[in-house]
Design brief:
Length: about 425
C-alpha cells in the first residue's frame, strides 16, 4: 500500500512538472512570436524606407536631368538666336557691299552719267543698329523658350488665364498717381506669382504686346494717356529688367523709327511696293473691302500708318522721360535717339512725325535735364531739319501739317511747359464731385 501511494505521489509530481513546462513553453512561444512579428515589422519598415530613399534619389536624378536638359535647350536657343542674328547681319552686309559694287560699276561704265552716291539700303547709326540687335536677340530667345508652351493644347487654359489677368490690369490703368501705383503693384504681384518658366517669359511678352497695343488703340487718339501707360511700364521694367528689353524689341519691330532706322525707297530695289511698306511697318488694313480670292491683303493707308507711328512715338517719348531713380531707359536714351535721328535719318513726313511726337512728350524733361545743350539740338531742328523738310512740301503736301506743328513747337517754346497729361492728380477728382 505504501509503495502504491508513493508511486501515485511521484506520478502527480511528474504531471505538475510537465504542466509547468508546457506553460513555460507556451509563454516562450508567445514571446518568440512577438519578437518575430517585431522583426518583420522592422524589416518591412526598413524596406519601405529604403524604397522611399531610392524613389527620392530617382526623382532628384530625374529633376536634375530635366534641369540639365532645360539649361542645354536654353543655351542652344541662345546660341541659335545669336547665330541667326550674326548670319542676318552678315547677309545684310554682303548685300550692301554687292549693291555698292554694282552701283560703282554702273557709275564707271562707258557713257554712264555721274552718280552722286549710292543710296543705302537702310539708314541708321552703328550704335542704334547694335542696340537694336541686342534687343532683338533677347526677344528671339524669349520667343524660342515659349514656342512650345504658346501652341500646346494642354496649356491653352493657363495661357487664357494669364492673358485675361494682363488685359484687365492694362485696361484699368488710369491717369492718377494712385491708380498708377496700384496697377504697377498688381502687375508686379502677378509676375511674382508666375515664377516657373516658360510661363513667366510668356507673361512678360504678352504684357509688352498688350501695352504696345494701347499705343494704337488709345495713345494715338488720346495723346495724354501715354504718360500713365509709360509710368506703369517703367515701374514694371524696374521690377523685372527683362521686360524693358522685350518691350523695346517689340516696339522696334512695330515702329522702325523708334530705333531710329529708315529704309530709303529705291525703284527696283524691292519686289513690290507692298514689300517696302511692310518693311517700314505698314500693316493690313482693317477694312479689306472686296478682295478677290488669292490677292494679297490690302495695306493700311499712309495716313493710318502715320497715326499709329505717332502713337508709338508719343509712348516711347513718355517712357524715356519718366522720372525714376533706376530707370533702365531714361534721359540718356532720349538724347541718343534724337541725336541719331537728326544725324542719320532724312527729313520726310514719317521722320518728322516721329520727331514732332517725341519732342511733344519728352522735350520738356530733356530741356529741364540738359538745358542749353538741348537748345543746340533744337537749333539743328530749326536751322537744318525743318528747312530741308519744308523744301519737300511742294512734292508732298502732307509734309506741311507736321512741319507746321514742329515749327510752332519751336516758336512758342513749348518745351518750357509740361505737356498735357504729364502732371497727374493723386486721385480721380471727378469721383469727389457732389451731385446737385
Amino acid at each position: 500500500a505504501a509503495a502504491a501511494a508513493a508511486a501515485i505521489e511521484t506520478q502527480r509530481e511528474i504531471d505538475e512538472m510537465d504542466a509547468r513546462w508546457r506553460q513555460r513553453d507556451a509563454a516562450v512561444r508567445v514571446v518568440l512570436a512577438a519578437d518575430a512579428a517585431e522583426a518583420e515589422r522592422q524589416r518591412a519598415a526598413a524596406e519601405a524606407e529604403e524604397k522611399a530613399r531610392k524613389a527620392a534619389e530617382e526623382a532628384k536624378r530625374r529633376a536634375e536631368e530635366e534641369e540639365k536638359k532645360k539649361a542645354e535647350a536654353a543655351a542652344k536657343a541662345k546660341s541659335d538666336a545669336e547665330k541667326a542674328a550674326a548670319a542676318t547681319a552678315a547677309e545684310e552686309k554682303r548685300r550692301m557691299e554687292e549693291e555698292k559694287k554694282a552701283a560703282e560699276a554702273a557709275a564707271t561704265a562707258p557713257g554712264a552719267p555721274p552718280r552722286p552716291g549710292v543710296v543705302p539700303r537702310v539708314q541708321t547709326s552703328a550704335e542704334a543698329s547694335a542696340r537694336e540687335g541686342e534687343f532683338a536677340a533677347e526677344l528671339a530667345r524669349a520667343r524660342t523658350s515659349v514656342a512650345e508652351y504658346s501652341t500646346s493644347a494642354s496649356t491653352k487654359r493657363e495661357r487664357r488665364a494669364l492673358n485675361a489677368q494682363i488685359t484687365v490690369h492694362v485696361q484699368q490703368i488710369a491717369a492718377t498717381k494712385t491708380q498708377i501705383e496700384k496697377k504697377a503693384i498688381d502687375v508686379a504681384t502677378m509676375l511674382s506669382n508666375v515664377r516657373q518658366e516658360p510661363q513667366r517669359t510668356f507673361a512678360l511678352v504678352s504684357l509688352a504686346k498688350r501695352i504696345l497695343t494701347q499705343c494704337d488703340s488709345q495713345v494715338s487718339k488720346l495723346n495724354r494717356f501715354a504718360f500713365a501707360l509709360a509710368e506703369v511700364a517703367v515701374r514694371i521694367a524696374v521690377f523685372e529688367p527683362r521686360f524693358n528689353v522685350i518691350l523695346l524689341a517689340l516696339l522696334h519691330e512695330s515702329c522702325v523709327l523708334a530705333v531710329p532706322k529708315y529704309y530709303p525707297f529705291v525703284v527696283g530695289r524691292y519686289a513690290s511696293d507692298d514689300e517696302y511698306f511692310r518693311l517700314m511697318g505698314y500693316v493690313d488694313a482693317e477694312d479689306q473691302g472686296e478682295r478677290r480670292e488669292g490677292d494679297p491683303p490690302k495695306l493700311e493707308t499712309t495716313d493710318a500708318f502715320g497715326q499709329r507711328l505717332r502713337g508709338f512715338m508719343l509712348f516711347y517719348a513718355a517712357y524715356t522721360q519718366v522720372e525714376h531713380a533706376t530707370h533702365p531707359h531714361g534721359m540718356e536714351a532720349a538724347w541718343s535717339w534724337i541725336s541719331r535721328l537728326l544725324n542719320r535719318i532724312p527729313p520726310n513726313r514719317h521722320s518728322a512725325t516721329a520727331l514732332e511726337s517725341f519732342l511733344k512728350h519728352a522735350g520738356y524733361r530733356m530741356y529741364a535735364t540738359y538745358g542749353s545743350q538741348f537748345g543746340k539740338i533744337l537749333d539743328v531742328v530749326d536751322q537744318s531739319f525743318l528747312p530741308e523738310l519744308e523744301a519737300k512740301s511742294g512734292d508732298d503736301p502732307d509734309v506741311r501739317p507736321v512741319a507746321s506743328r514742329t515749327r510752332t513747337y519751336l516758336n512758342e517754346r513749348t518745351f518750357l511747359k509740361p505737356p498735357e497729361g504729364r502732371e497727374m492728380p493723386n486721385t480721380d477728382t471727378s469721383q469727389n464731385t457732389i451731385p446737385r
